[in-house]
Specification:
Layout lengths: L2 H14 L3 H6 L5 H10 L3 H31 L1 E3 L19 E8 L21 E9 L6 E5 L5 E4 L2 E2 L6 E2 L2 E5 L9 H12 L5 E5 L1 H10 L3 E5 L3 E3 L4 E3 L2 E5 L2 H8 L9 H21 L6 H13 L1 E4 L5 H11 L7 E5 L2 E4 L2 E7 L3 H10 L15 H4 L23 E5 L6 H11 L5 E5 L7 E4 L4 H11 L6 E3 L6 E5 L26 E4 L16
Parallel strand pairs: 1-14, 2-9, 4-15, 18-19, 18-22, 20-21
Antiparallel strand pairs: 2-3, 3-4, 5-8, 6-7, 9-14, 10-13, 11-12, 15-23, 16-17, 20-22
Helix pairs in contact: 4-9, 6-7, 6-9
Length: 530
């Protein structure tokens, strides 16, 4: 049989429904030739379509592989901790509550050299921005807590895991220096120590990341009350709303002088306003559901991103991104850690107590900061099955001397003389080293205690009948502080049922804004362009 002739006959016969079809039914060709019959008999248009589909499938597989390896190779990574290893199991990236420390590095290497020399940022660089992003387990809330870079804190012992060099603990150091010697893990350990929480991951970006990301999304809208010019950061904006990207977006986030009174807190509010606007834009434009847009942003971000080992994979980053896409922007709360000028240097800040301890306690209890009266979701430590009692009795803790333990009473009850009444009860109970002062009014009484004073606080609380649930660790407190609220206005024993309200003690107006709020920043009068 003439193969060429047979091929032409197949095309003709298939179109007419006769010929080789009936021969095949009667046994016809066998073996490999028989299996090739249907493919060889395709119409030309079907062959072309099959070829196009195959080409698209191959291209898609190659494209997906290209982007996966490109994004994966973009990512830089570093150890999560620098000595203070996590005491809890890591959160589940897909379903658990997560705390992610977001850092902005001030390094002047490479693409960042135009903002200064390497002498301006030694070692690993300092954290120009530090925010803790807290994602709730049910994916309904996100808290973003900003730490001022001028905040004085205690930095724990840290070890540079690259060099093996140990760095001793330091006291009263600016928080932005935490990672400059031993690396990013030391910043993580510092935040863990300060908040009593456990950071699961970190993400650190540099100056260039801000420029590239703002370009990738086509600009971010920001608002300012008056026209300003800051020669230090090179920020120049008119009054009202402007779209910033590239260098101007970076200048908006870096400026230390353009907003409020020119301090770090005004800068934090501007950064939170920028992120709120960016969040709204990404949500409104459906970016998280658009693969092309997401690839563009992911490529930009990963080229300028350093993460911990547990986050250093494209699937993990996508998992967390997917969790964020459906969150109500009114439940994305931006908060600044409560601070007050440091006694040793008014240009530096320290945690304001008891407000700082109240905030960290609420975070540990997973309170909805946008609605503190809502029931809190239990934390893993609160729902975990208690460990069985040890078979051997632990040796008793040596008793301390009550007479030398520092205990102060802050009168926030609104009733004159309340602190003196509580002090008299403490002295009668053996706590003779006491002090008292008038404080800001608060609704709920609490006992705050510094590092190493948990046992003293427990005895003070028991003496006054204050429940253990109202004991709050506060690293900024020296000794123990009884902060008397309006729920303890008489007597020296906390009343039965007092403090039983649903709302926890929280600083007033702790949330600066949510991602749903459009806030206009107040310009620093000294930099307003007239």
């Amino acid at each position: 049989m003439d193969p060429g002739r047979d091929g032409r006959d197949n095309e003709a016969d298939l179109s007419s429904g006769t010929g080789p079809v009936s021969r095949h039914a009667n046994g016809g060709a066998v073996g490999a030739a028989r299996h090739l019959g249907p493919l060889r008999g395709m119409p030309l248009w079907l062959k072309a379509l099959t070829g196009v589909v195959a080409l698209v499938l191959v291209a898609a597989i190659a494209f997906g592989g290209f982007w996966f390896f490109r994004l994966q190779n973009n990512i830089s990574k570093a150890p999560l901790n620098a000595g203070g290893e996590n005491t809890e199991a890591a959160g589940n990236d897909a379903t658990g509550r997560l705390q992610i420390l977001i850092l902005g590095s001030d390094t002047r290497d490479g693409k960042n050299s135009e903002y200064g020399t390497s002498d301006d940022s030694t070692g690993y660089g300092k954290s120009d921005v530090m925010m803790l992003m807290d994602i709730s387990e049910d994916n309904k809330r996100v808290n973003v807590i900003s730490f001022p870079r001028d905040l004085l804190v205690d930095i724990p012992d840290c070890k540079d895991k690259k060099t093996g060099k140990d760095y001793p603990a330091r006291t009263g150091v600016m928080i932005n220096e935490a990672m400059s010697e031993a690396g990013i893990g030391c910043a993580v350990d510092t935040v863990n120590k300060l908040t009593g929480m456990q950071v699961d991951h970190f993400m650190m970006a540099d100056f260039n990341a801000v420029k590239e990301l703002s370009n990738a999304v086509g600009g971010v809208d920001v608002c300012i009350s008056d026209a300003v010019f800051d020669p230090d950061s090179r920020l120049r904006l008119p009054a009202g709303t402007s779209s910033v990207q590239g260098e101007m977006a970076l200048a908006f986030l870096r400026t230390r002088h353009a907003f409020a009174d020119g301090g770090d807190l005004g800068r934090i509010k501007a950064q939170q306003g920028f992120l709120s606007s960016l969040t709204r834009k990404i949500k409104d434009e459906g970016t998280l559901s658009d693969p092309a847009k997401m690839l563009k942003i992911a490529d930009v971000v990963t080229q300028n991103l350093t993460v911990d080992d547990g986050l250093a994979s494209v699937p993990t980053l996508l998992t967390i991104g997917t969790r964020l896409k459906d969150i109500d922007i009114s439940k994305v709360a931006f908060v600044a850690v409560p601070t007050t000028p440091a006694p040793v240097d008014p240009n530096r800040l320290v945690i304001a107590e008891p407000a700082g301890a109240q905030l960290f306690s609420a975070l540990r209890k997973n309170v909805d900061l946008t609605d503190p009266t809502a029931p809190a979701s239990p934390s893993p430590s609160e729902t975990a099955t208690p460990s069985p009692a040890p078979t051997e009795t632990a040796p008793p803790v040596p008793p301390y001397n009550k007479a030398i333990q520092p205990v102060t009473v802050a009168n926030g009850s609104g009733v004159s003389g309340r602190a003196q009444e509580i002090v008299q009860a403490l002295v009668a109970g053996g706590f003779t080293q006491t002090g008292q002062f008038l404080a800001q009014p608060v609704a709920k009484t609490a006992v705050y205690y510094g590092n190493g004073f948990a046992d003293v606080a427990a005895d003070v609380a028991a003496l006054l009948g204050i429940p253990a649930t109202l004991m709050i660790p506060a690293p900024g407190v020296s000794g123990v502080q009884v902060y008397v609220g309006s729920d303890f206005t008489s007597g020296t024993t906390y009343g039965a049922g007092a403090g039983g309200g649903t709302a926890p003690a929280l600083p007033q107006d702790i949330v600066n804004q949510t991602a749903g709020d459009k806030v206009c920043q107040q310009a620093n009068p000294e930099l307003i362009v007239r």
